[in-house]
Specification:
eight-stranded antiparallel beta sheet, D-amino Acid Aminotransferase, Chain A, domain 1, Rossmann fold, Dna Ligase, domain 1, 5 domains, alpha+beta
């Protein structure tokens, strides 16, 4: 029997496995990098072992250090989680060679499927030859042969861009997985990403646990997932189940895994890959089948047989990935202190963060997964959208509003989505919509707090002034109010109640309540974030027109070939590449003109707002 499990991963992944282990009476061991020294998964584990360094290559990708950590902590099993080394056959073999139980498939099965190129060959397909592709093959998809999560993937629509995109994909894949191999395959427009969860034991039983639709993706990384995949013909579902079970049997699979397909608009399925691990989106399958996949992984690893058939599926489940990122700014990841994170009761929250934790630059920007189950799909979508809308998320910018709007979008609600959903709808889904009364509410809450310390004035005719900037649209607002003997005068808006944390206004005969939370100069009025501004702006805090500022902390990976001060650049031309949170981000020229300054240097760490370059826009022809 397994008594102690080390999770060879971090954050939400480790916390998820720990939860099941605690319920089963199994002690837990965490590993952590220097950047994660105070992370939630470290605090929740029964024991923790440091992996010196912060970069994944020095820590969570060091299988030798993780095996030593397991032995030092007295663990008798290793759970790989998902990501990092979870699909690394050498790591799995090192774990078993050390006398530890590997909670996953045999190394031979991982080897057969971990490389997407070999998996395709096993399934009767083969990647495209880059030297032989023509315009007729476009569009193409560059993919990393190892790993997943959308890293090392690029869409190529022009042959002239193929070489550069493959180089960028290799660089990203090597950084994320320690393997820079990439390959080419056709890119299917308006396809749906559908997958099948499989679970197999050592005695030949293979479960195919329904279907999941994961079509809503950004940068080829899933954002919203659901089970079952809606609107599929029964014959297609049956065929997907048969194919998934056949793949598992072909490699002697044991444990939990996922077989992924792309379904074309005509209803034809195309095998993509098999992920030989648990997936981020596994909770929707758990909710629909009423099972705990981590508990079943442990049982299979201990040699227990599965029942001949899985439980009956019931209802519908949907999951949204909450990211610290700004979808309106090319999905730029965000960092900083997470002041508060909570969701209403009735939905599941899986997270690796707690109030007060800092979101850093070294790892994926996912804050949490929020999961809702209901008897029907429409009810599940409404339940999840409502929970996200009422959630308290105070800290860096997140994709929360995008998630709510996506769940309510007619195309998604009508099961007509595909992998190009965000390519078509991103502008409407990211349009800024801050609460119009937020600046007034923030000022009234602040006035209440200060009135307890002599804020009331005898000369009450003199208005008080506060300035705020709504972070969603960058607009600055000036708010005026007066302290009177009868309370606060807000210029015609009736103030029913005003405290430092709650303001009630009566607007056109309707009372509206606003919760207010302040963290230094940042004020959150419900879901609207504001920055309190000084009464008189600092005239020195300005940048020259055309300045390119780092949108996030990160490392300068490279600058455009041949770029130097004085070079002519065109609008939209990539000038600088930043790496942050395991993704590369291109900094584009805002206009055509002359590069008058270039401060970015490859290998240099930069903070958010750092000046990278300046482009002087060319004068229009007269």
């Amino acid at each position: 029997m397994i008594q102690s499990v080390l999770v060879a991963n971090r954050g939400e992944i480790a916390c998820r496995v720990f939860r099941t282990c605690r319920e089963l009476g199994i002690t837990t061991v965490a590993v952590y990098s220097d950047a994660d020294a105070s992370a939630l998964h470290v605090r929740e584990a029964d024991a923790a072992v440091r992996l010196p360094g912060s970069a994944p290559a020095d820590t969570y990708l060091r299988g030798d250090l993780i095996v030593k950590a397991a032995l030092a902590a007295g663990a008798d099993a290793v759970h790989p989680g998902y990501g990092f080394l979870s699909e690394n056959a050498e790591f799995a073999r090192a774990v078993t060679d050390a006398g530890l139980v590997w909670i996953g498939p045999a190394p031979s099965a991982i080897e057969a499927m971990a490389s997407k190129t070999r998996a395709k060959e096993l399934m009767g397909g083969a990647p495209l030859d880059p030297a032989a592709v023509t315009e007729a093959d476009l569009p193409l998809l560059v993919k990393a042969a190892a790993g997943g999560g959308g890293r090392g993937m690029r869409i190529v629509r022009e042959l002239g861009a193929l070489e550069a995109e493959m180089a960028a994909a290799r660089s990203e894949a090597a950084s994320a997985f320690g393997d820079g191999e990439v390959f080419l395959e056709p890119y299917i427009e308006r396809g749906r990403h559908v997958e099948v969860q499989v679970l197999a034991d050592a005695y030949g039983t293979v479960w195919a646990l329904g279907t999941r639709d994961c079509s809503l993706q950004r940068r080829h990384q899933k954002v919203i997932e659901e089970s079952p995949a809606p609107g599929l013909a029964a014959s297609l579902v049956s065929g997907l189940h048969e194919s998934a079970a056949a793949v598992a049997r072909a490699v002697g699979y044991r444990g939990a895994g996922t077989v992924e397909f792309l379904v074309s608009p005509s209803g034809r399925s195309h095998f993509l890959e098999m992920n030989t691990r648990l997936q981020v989106e596994h909770p929707v399958t758990e909710a629909v089948f009423g099972i705990d996949l981590v508990a079943l992984q442990l049982a299979v690893a201990e040699g227990d047989p599965l029942p001949p058939a899985p439980p009956e599926a019931r209802g519908h489940a949907v999951e949204a990935r909450l990211y610290a990122e700004d979808p309106a700014q090319e999905w730029a990841p965000q960092t900083g202190v997470l002041h508060g994170l909570s969701v209403p009761s009735g939905v599941r929250l899986d997270t690796g963060y707690a109030d007060g934790d800092t979101i850093g630059v070294h790892y994926d920007p996912m804050l949490a997964k929020v999961v809702a189950w209901a008897p029907s799909r429409a009810e599940a979508l409404r339940k999840l959208a409502g929970a996200l809308e009422r959630a308290r998320i105070h800290g860096p910018v997140t994709n929360r509003d995008l998630l709510v709007r996506s769940l309510r979008h007619p195309e998604f609600a009508g099961s007509r989505m595909d992998t190009g959903f965000y390519d078509r709808h991103l502008p409407e889904l990211t349009a800024a919509a801050p609460e119009p009364y937020a600046p007034l509410v923030a000022a009234l809450a602040d006035a209440h707090g200060r009135s307890r310390f002599g804020g009331w004035r005898n000369l009450h005719a003199q208005p008080q002034t506060k300035r705020y900037r709504t972070e969603a649209d960058g607009i600055e607002h000036e708010v005026r109010y007066r302290h009177t003997r009868d309370g606060l005068d807000a210029g015609g808006v009736k103030v029913v109640q005003a405290t430092a944390s709650l303001v009630v206004l009566e607007v056109e005969g309707v009372q509206r309540k606003f919760e207010v939370t302040s963290h230094g100069d940042r004020v959150f009025v419900g879901n609207t974030a504001l920055t309190a501004l000084p009464r008189f702006p600092d005239p020195t805090a300005q940048h020259a027109p055309g300045s390119l500022l780092a949108p996030m902390p990160g490392t300068v990976v490279r600058v455009g070939e041949g770029l130097a001060e004085g070079a002519r650049v065109t609008q939209g031309q990539p000038l600088v590449w930043l790496e942050a949170m395991k993704m590369e981000h291109r900094i584009l020229s805002p206009a055509s003109g002359t590069l008058t300054a270039l401060h970015a240097v490859p290998g240099r760490q930069v903070e958010v707002g750092a000046l990278l370059a300046v482009v002087q826009e060319e004068e229009p022809a007269s």
